[in-house]
Structure formats: structure tokens, C-alpha cells
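no rush on this but wanted to send it before i forget. theres a chain ive been looking at and ive put its sequence and its fold in C-alpha cell form underneath. i want to understand how the C-alpha cells follow from the sequence so walk me through it. thanks a lot i owe you, the record is right below:
>
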Amino acid sequence: MNSHVLVSPARRVGRGKPVFDVKNAAILAILLAASSTALSAQTWKGTIVKDGDVTVVRNPKTPLYPAGTLQLKEELAIGGESLPAEAAFSVVRDLEVAPDGRIYIADVKQDRIFVFDANGRFLTAFGKRGQGPGEFLSPMQMSLWNKKSELFVDGMRKGVVFGLDGTYKENIQYPIDMLMVKAAESGALAGTVMRYASTEDYYQLVKTREGNAPPLILAKAPIPNPQKYDPFMPRIAWTWRGDGTIVEGYPERYEIKIHNADGKVVRILSRDYDPVAVPAREKEKVLKAMAADFKPDFSNDYPAFQYFVSDENGRLFVLTWEKASDGKGNKTDVFDSAGRFLLKLDNLGRVYRAVGGKLYCVDEDEEGYQVMKRYALVWEKLKPCP
């Protein structure tokens, strides 16, 4: 069972899921500010050193604070089979949150964007499959841009811009052939580019620049070998921060890099960890789904982490492969803006956004329906780890 603390009174949106009134944001801000002061007084066992122009933050395996230090109060849940047909999303690909709390859910199966208000009330849905104005082949990523007044949707090799009410604005042709594109509020784009060479196939994480300037190359990683496919191999994870910087990491090891606006690495955070072995049953699932002549080259262990998101204060929420206490999901590591490993969160589902002192996640209910959940972060009395 989920051990998160719930608040009341409750309403319901979708199948039997509690929905809660949004609490005063000012109260939450005071709690978070108080937590920052308390954090600075604790004894941290990692190191922060300068290596030329790069700040290197090394963390131990054990977080600064024990489980339960940061409580999650579930205040909203949307989803389930009882949602009306016009509001029923099925396969969530991405999620975005507007300044007024409106929630945008990109459904990759229906090629639609579903919009709910801050209290979970369905407002509208827009977009459809195609290549014309306001259409996309698949809504892969969403971003707020133009000072958070518009919604940028990556629609497979092109961007589609909508007003926050769903009104179509324009199509954006990418200057290079990028995939999995995310937009910064300033209008800059970043995504992955496939490169093929005689000796090595690889992909790059790149960031566009104004005018005809070539893109900045931020990271490089090998493309999966189709002849010896390994679904458990590391893949680059990355995200924009609100200040226009980019955070990226190739999880061959637990190391995350922060790039400034010029693309230079200015901070690296790492953490000691115990690799998580890939269970034999997971490898068997892959083998059953592949052709008989398939020759896998499976990794023995999962990558160091799966992906991460950043909140507006620079905190990082990193999804790991470490199993949650209920055995269903995975634990999430939390780092402060300096890169210190603060604590672990349990039973969250997939975290899509961290904004306004809240986490927006997607999980499955008992019937297998995807449900979007919003949690308020509440820092209780902080105690240092032993």
C-alpha cells in the first residue's frame, strides 16, 4: 500500500481516486524555505571540490536524511475507467503544468493533448495525428515557452505551438533532424541527433543556437546495436532547467552534468551506489517478444539511473532502478541545487514534473489504468542520517 499522507476534504475525478483542494501556495513556500535553512545545519558526508572551472560534487551511498523526512501529501488524482470518454487518456507520454495550475497530458496512443484545471476538472483536448497545421505524428515531449504563455509540442521531427487554451499557433521546422526535442522558455531547442559513421554509430545531445550558428554538442552515446539489441543498456537522460541551463547524464555510471548557457560543463554530481541486477524474468520477456534468431547481448545490471526532472529551484529528482518498498515501482533520489544527495522517495510512479513545491506523477491503478497524481512536498522535522 502507498504510505503517503493524505489531506482532506476529498473529491473524486475518475475511478475511485481522491481529489483534494489545492492548499495555499504561500504556506508551502514557508515550509520549503524553513526546510532549506534546516538542511544547511546538517552534517553532509560528501565532498565538493573545484577541478578547473568545474565544480565536482561526490555523494556517498547513504542520503543525508532518512526515509520519511520529506512527506508527500497526495492532493489530486485524475484517471481511471470512469472518466468521460472525451477526457479519457490512455498512454501518457509527457505532462506539463501551466503557471495557473492547468495540467496538460500528452497521450501517445491517441495523439491528443488532454487539459485539466488545477482541481482536476476536464477542460478540453486538442491535436490529432497528421502532418498539417496543429497535427503531429506523435506528441513525444511538451514544454512551456514564450515566457510560459504557449505550449510547445514535439511532434516527431517538427514542433507544434499552441496557446495554453489549445488554439493552434504555428509549426516549427527544426534546423537539423532532431528527435525527442524539448524547448526552453527562451525558445532554444535541444534534442538528440543520430550520427552514422563507418566505425561507429552514435547519437548526440545538441542544443540549437540563433541564426546559422552550428548547434552545441553537449553529449555523445552509442546507438543500440540492432543485431544484438540490449534493452537494458544506458541511454542519455537530460532536461532543461528554468534558468536555461541543461542537465544531462549517461547512466553508465551515476554521474550527472550541468551545462551552462554556452554548453560548457560547470558542475558534475555523482553518487556511490550498488548496481541493480537485471532479473532473469525480465530478460525472458524480451526473448519471448523477439524473433527466434535474435541474438541478445544483455547487460547484467540496469543503468545507474533511469531519468530525472528538475524543479524551478534546481533540485533534481532522479528515478533509480532500486525497487520501492511495495516491490511495484522504483525509488527516486532527491538532490538539492548544490548536488547534495538529500533523501530517497518511495512509491511515486513516474515523476514527470516538479514545480511549485509539487510533484506530478503517473501511476497505474488496480485495474491497470494510468492515473495522474499530484503530491505536495512537506518537509517535516529533519534529522541527520546516522
Notes: Residues 1-12, 15-41 have pLDDT under 50 and may be disordered. Residues 232 and 299 are 6 Å apart (CA to CA).
